[in-house]
Amino acid sequence: MENERKGIKLKQRTVIAVSLILGVLVITSVTGALLEYFGQVDITIEAKQSVLIDGHNWDEPVVGDLGELYGGCCECTRHTIINNGCEGIWLDWEHFGEPDISGIDVTMRDCFADDRKLESLEIRVLDGQAPDSFIVKLDGVNVYGYPAQGGEEIWVDHVIDLTQLSVEFSACGDHVIRIRCMEGEPWEHHETYGQLAVDTISLYSTGHVLCGTVDIGNETSEAGHNLEGWGPVEPTTHGGNWGGFDISGENCRVTWEAGLPIEEQGANVTISCPCVDVMCDCEKPIIDTPFYLEEGTSMNFCLCYELDMMIEEGSYVVSSQLIQAEI
Fold first, then answer.
1. Is residue 319 within 8 Å of residue 96, measured between CB atoms?
2. Which residue in 291, 324, 315, 253 sits closest to 99, CA to CA?
3. Which residues pair with 106 in a beta bridge?
């Protein structure tokens, strides 16, 4: 009897367990049937290329012209590549050309930031009978002092070597040049304005590259250079004879107005050096390819074209096709 009762209970438990399983299956089946009638979602996707070169899709040509190059020379072009996608990507290059690129080596190289420095400041100043000693400040820093020599009136070209100073001046941006006569009173033969006459001011960056020049007294040249503290254009208002020196046609100005305290004397002019975001150089490190570009990032790079010394004369078209690398 005891065994029979155990057998009945076991059967009951089995039936219950199966019923529960079936119940789950029924619920799932009903739920699935209901979902078919809950609605439809339509999504339209306009797919865009993730990788861009200079703002162009990576399968679009970016056209440039290096012009004439001699054998043995190397020139680079700067580019920017952007990965707007949500995944990183490995990239590589295929280089080909017309008629071919035999004798032309193409490399991908690092760019470098605009690290040019100011190299020199050149000022043309009249020196002679008047006390013409002066100092020069660049961006508030005293960079030069000149003790007047006296004697015959003569234009002196002052070349100020900025590389020998204890401070470096980054070339990029605006630079204020201030010239101050060191005399407390104007020359007795000059009315209203002080005697220190300035003709031209020029500013150079690394490699003696001209940032800009101003012909003081030439209003066309002066435009946009924020002149402050200068006298009228000479010689029309000088009231003296400049020591017998003929400055007609020179169109200069003097640097300060008589009667001002010496610390307020001086005249300013602003010269700007154009800023270059990144620059290329055939001597910069080569970027190994294939290379990886993370998602949501960009990189500046240079494609450099080096011509073999014995390359055949003619016109070449070099194409560099960006491709997805096989890793």
1. yes
2. 315
3. 305
Please give the Cα distance from 268 to 199 (Å, whole number): 13
Q: Domain coordinates of the chain in residue numbers?
A: 1-42, 51-114+278-324, 118-273
CA-CA distance, 224 to 211, in Å (whole number)?
14
Q: What is the pLDDT of residues 27-69, one digit of tens each?
A: 444 455 555 666 788 999 999 999 999 989 887 888 889 999 9
Query: What confidence tens digit (pLDDT) does each residue in 128-147 have?
Result: 766 778 999 999 999 999 98
Cβ neighbours of residue 212 closer than 8 Å, sequence gap 6 or more = 202, 203, 225, 271, 272, 273
Quick check: 177 and 269 in contact, CB under 8 A? yes
Pairing of strands 209-215, 134-138: unpaired
Assign domain 51-114+278-324 one CATH number from 2.60.40, 2.160.20, 1.10.10, 3.30.70: 2.60.40
Residue 71 CB partners (closer than 8 Å, separation 6+): 103, 307, 308, 309, 310, 311
Question: Is 0.85 surpassed by the pTM of this model?
Answer: no
Rounded to whole angstroms, the Cα distance separating 278 from 110 reads 10
Separation of CA 114 from chain center: 6
The rounded distance, in Å, linking the Cα atoms of 62 and 207 is 30
Strand, coil or helix: 213: strand
